Amino acid sequence: MRGTIQRVVRAAGREYEVDPALPRTFVVGECVRRGVQAARGLATWRRLSFRGAGVRVRCAERLVVGPFAAIGEGSLVDASGRRGVRLGRGAKLGRRVIVTTTSQLGKQGVGLTLGDFTGIGDYAHLGCSGGVTFGTNVIAGPYLTCHSQEHLTDDLHTPIRLQGTREAEVVVGDDVWIGARVTLLAGSRVGDGCIIAAGSVVRGEFPPRSVIGGVPARVLKTRDGA
User: Fold this and answer.
1) CB neighbours of 76 closer than 8 A, spacing ≥ 6?
2) Which residues contact 189 (CB under 8 A, 6 or more apart)?
3) Catalytic residue ranges
4) 138 contacts: CB under 8 Å, gap ≥ 6
5) What would the pLDDT profile of 154-201 be if each residue is shown by its tens digit?
6) Exposed (0-12), middle (13-18) or buried (19+): which is 222, by Cβ within 10 Å?
7) Rounded distance, CA 184 to CA 190, Å?
């Protein structure tokens, strides 16, 4: 069984060995669980992919799921945007992730793109009205929130809810590590190789290989030692 698992792991682009200390019952149970998810994915998307229990998709015709991609149990994915939702090879949305795209009938949203082998942790909320794009090999902890749309507030004589919104894409480069409970605000652009500390609130542009942290987030140091 472990040999079969390793072949699947390598086909999915991963590089790890099954820990021999894991109880056999756990390994078997995990294989069964993933097998059921793969059967759902194959039935739904006609390719080897993983669909958790209770996953709901709106505008399914605009959802593109790459090989070995996964959507965790209880997630809700709105793919109604102009670019839909695209999950690259081995990309993953964790459990109970919410992807919103079109917030009102008067304005179609943009959508979400996850690059190959990018994983979004459990309980994330990705607001993709203005577009959210993650590069390849991004890892994000639980409770990530992205807001690519924000309310206008300039008119003091009109209720904020009636002033409309501004959309600006959130873009995260390749090989970025995002800690737990990070918030990415509209227009944020995070360069390749960055690390974002847990709990940070990110707005603006950050150069590659930055270590980012704080509320609001700022560059704490660079990873090349400069």
Assistant:
1) 55, 56, 57, 58, 97, 98, 99
2) 170, 171, 172, 204, 205, 206
3) 151
4) 114, 115, 118, 119, 172, 174, 175, 176, 177, 178
5) 999 999 989 888 989 999 999 999 999 999 999 999 999 999 999 999
6) middle
7) 9
Q: Is 37 helix (H, G, I), strand (E, B) or coil?
A: helix
Q: Give the residue extent of every domain in the chain.
A: 48-222
**Tokens representing residue 100 in the block:** 């919103």
Task: Look up the pTM and report it.
Answer: 0.89
Residue 225 has pLDDT above 60, yes or no: no
Amino acid at 184: L
Q: Return the bridge partners of 78, or none.
A: 58
Residue 217, C-beta contacts closer than 8 angstroms, at least 6 positions apart = 196, 197, 200, 201, 202, 203, 206
Mean pLDDT score across all residues of the chain: 92
Choices 3.40.50.300, 1.10.10.60, 2.160.10.10, 3.60.20.30: CATH for 48-222: 2.160.10.10
Is the Cβ–Cβ distance between 212 and 182 less than 8 Å?
no
- At residue 70's C-alpha, the angle toward residues 65 and 76, to 5°, is 85
pLDDT in tens, 109-161: 999 999 999 999 999 999 999 999 999 999 999 999 999 999 988 999 999 98
Q: Which residue has the higher pLDDT, 30 or 190?
A: 190
